[in-house]
Amino acid sequence: MLEAFASGFLVFAYTATALFQLALVFGAPMGEYAYGGQMPGKLPIPYRVASAVSFLLLLAIAGHYLAQLGLVPKLLSDDLNQWVNWGLIGFAAAAAVMNNITRSVKEKRLWGSTTIAMLIAAIVVAF
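and the corresponding structure tokens:
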């Protein structure tokens, strides 16, 4: 039951983060909440392209956790699925570190505790 809750939380969190990245792609003036807060307002084109790639990656991760819940078919064998779960712990850990050491107060407030919760949930799913 805890694993299902953690997977559901991760689906929600990664989907919400993907939608945030999509908003950046379309020019939402929220640059101070991403990429270290270096570019307040609308992001320049290279960063918007990076946000488009992030959007796709985050949706794929959300899909992986949807498969963990059994809502979509699993594409991976059980062994490979477990390896991916451990890899996603690394991804979540990197995100948590980066979002908690940033100098941008706005970015840290928005993503700091969220990424820590995502890391904890990823650990729960992997075990």
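(Above: one complete record from the training split.) The mean pLDDT is 97.
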